[in-house]
Design a protein that fits this description.
This protein starts with a strand and ends in an 11-residue tail after the last strand. The chain has a single domain, classed as Tachylectin-2, Chain A (5 Propeller). The strands form five sheets. It has a four-stranded antiparallel beta sheet, with no helix packed on it. A hairpin with a 2-residue loop joins strand 7 and strand 8. With 297 residues, it is an all-beta fold. It is globular and about 45 Å long.
Length: 297
């Protein structure tokens, strides 16, 4: 089971305001990079850390562009370095709708939009009014995106798309690739915000949000051999859930996970909420996941 770090948020306070929907990556120099959303200015930011606990002050990477008509605020992004270029897919929100946009950067901090239009928009009935929370892997020359879709306040399902250039996307005919399981109390209402990772023995390992109800969320995991079909939920679900009376007493949202090879520990960063305040927390689990941790095929 995952254990929370020191029972307190590791990043964020009343000075920073709400920080949410983080995306973690390892840097070549050994540091950690955290891309995150800052609610106070409706922008995207980045922070860096030596240990995953102590973080530098957030620096804005992409502010909103209200004149676009589709991104009065921006949030919920991921950043992938391909060659010498940092590529960002992000959520733009306006007029009750959400879309996915695309930006690039040479230094990983100052991003510029590649297009003034979204690269992904809600179209199918199950996508409702929003597509958001992109998670992109670049594998064998192909960009693979997992994203949330449905309502804007909280999405409902997880979907999948592919692209050769990161701009023109083909949505999978299998969408949605993962939906709520009403038999599981921890996700009986809906699911959302995910991170997909390659795993040495399981194929792909998915971390996602499960909603008991619209205001109560926890963190769950599932695995799939190809990342698209035959997902098997983790028998430990929910792997992180709200702690009564604590800073995350109401909900634990949007996981971003990394495996610490040196320590042999899974680390999951997430945004926890109590009332209207949301900050970033950390939970850890010793040892790797195995097939026995998941539902049988």
């Amino acid at each position: 089971m995952f254990q929370k770090y020191a029972g307190a948020p590791i990043f964020g306070d009343k000075t920073t305001g709400t920080l949410f929907d983080v995306y973690l990556t390892n840097l070549p120099d050994g540091r950690l990079r955290m891309d995150l959303s800052t609610r106070r200015n409706g922008s995207l930011s980045v922070s860096f850390s030596e240990d995953g606990v102590n973080w530098s002050a957030p620096v804005t990477t992409l502010p909103p562009e209200p004149a676009s008509g589709w991104e009065e605020i921006v949030n919920r992004n991921c950043v992938v370095k391909v060659g010498d270029t940092y590529r960002m897919w992000y959520t733009g929100q306006a007029h009750g709708n959400s879309y996915i946009g695309f930006a690039e950067s040479e230094d990983g901090v100052r991003f510029r939009r590649v297009s003034d239009r979204p690269v992904l928009s809600p179209e199918a009935p199950f996508e409702g009014e929003s597509v958001m929370n992109p998670c992109v892997l670049f594998e064998n020359g192909l960009y693979r995106m997992w994203y949330s879709a449905g309502e804007t306040y909280e999405p409902n399902v997880l979907c999948y798309a592919e692209s050769e250039d990161g701009i023109r996307w083909r949505k999978s005919p299998l969408n949605p690739v993962l939906e709520k399981n009403p038999a599981k109390a921890y996700e009986q209402n809906r699911i959302g915000g995910c991170q997909m990772l390659r795993h040495r023995s399981l194929g792909y390992l998915l971390f996602y949000i499960g909603y008991r109800d619209i205001n109560t969320a926890c963190i769950c995991a599932a695995c799939s051999e190809d990342g698209v079909t035959n997902f098997r939920r983790c028998l430990l679900n929910p792997i992180v859930q709200p702690t009564p009376g604590a800073w995350d007493a109401d909900s634990c949202y949007k996981p971003s996970a990394l495996f610490d090879e040196n320590r042999g520990v899974w680390r999951v960063w997430y945004n926890g909420r109590r009332g209207s305040e949301e900050y970033v927390g950390l939970a850890e689990k010793p040892g790797d996941f195995t097939a026995a941790d998941f539902e049988p095929q």
